[in-house]
Amino acid sequence: MEDCLFCKIINKEIKSDIVFENDSVLIFKDISPQAPVHLLAVPKEHIDSILEVEKLDSGLLKELIDAVSRIALENELDKDGFRIVINTGIGAGQSVNHLHFHILGKRKLSWPPG
Ligand code: AMP
Ligand code: ZN
């Protein structure tokens, strides 16, 4: 989609630090990390948010979860725990309207999140 930051990252028009890529999913480092490990997992297809359920079929969701799980294990995030965050809407802090899973780890994560 035109003017979508993450679509530009997916299309390699904007550089990013990619840690995982397959046909349907890209995972890259967040430019402003909020934890020692802070990655963003995105579907390559442009999907505005988790609310666009008609675009989120079970195949794509499985691909996303498989990729997140694999990268979490590669980074040894299973040892001390990690968090997956999907900010949805302005009030929750969603600043990029392309569905993305934050993967945060390697620091103490308090609950409830702010
Ligand atoms: P959210 O605020 O939940 O929509 O998350 C958007 C995330 O994208 C933020 O954590 C930003 O730090 C991150 N971000 C913005 N621009 C870039 C970029 N060029 N490369 C990597 N991450 C980015
Ligand atoms: Zn997009």
Description of the structure:
With 114 residues, the chain is of the alpha+beta class. The chain has a single domain (5-105), classed as HIT-like (HIT family, subunit A). Helix content is 20%, strand content 22%. The protein is built from two helices and five strands. The protein has helices at residues 5-10, 58-74, and strands at 18-21, 25-29, 37-43, 82-85, 101-105. It has a five-stranded antiparallel sheet, with helices on one face. Strand 2 and strand 3 form a beta hairpin. The longest helix has 17 residues, at 58-74. It is globular and about 35 Å long. The site of adenosine monophosphate has 13 residues, from loops.
